[in-house]
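Before a computer can learn anything about folding, someone has to put a protein's shape into writing. The outcome of that step, for a single protein, is printed below:
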Amino acid sequence: VQLQASGGGLVQAGGSLRLSCVASGRTFSFYTMAWFRQAPGKDRESVSAIFWSDGSTYYSESVKGRFTISRDNAKNTVYLQMNSLKPEDTAVYYCAASRVGSPTTPVSDRYNYWGQGTLVTVSS
């Protein structure tokens, strides 16, 4: 599986962005898709995931209520709609794929495939 993320950019605080991640391959619907992010000088953290087994979703506490993850299996694409952006959301955002089916907090070690990252910068 190859992943291509896009949609990052510079936005003012309070603004919105939508990230997209397109996957290659014909078994996209059987992969849990997640977004992670890494801010300068910080560890990579999980942001959101959508599980292939039941379509359930996960959000970190820091983005809950502001971000929405969705997927279009016909287009092999996962999206992350980010609203009410804050300067602390500034990071490189990575999409990742895993065969993990059970809804759990995403752990990067369990994700086998990664996109190249897209930079989101939120100005105050």
The radius of gyration is 13 Å. DSSP finds no helices and eleven strands in the chain.
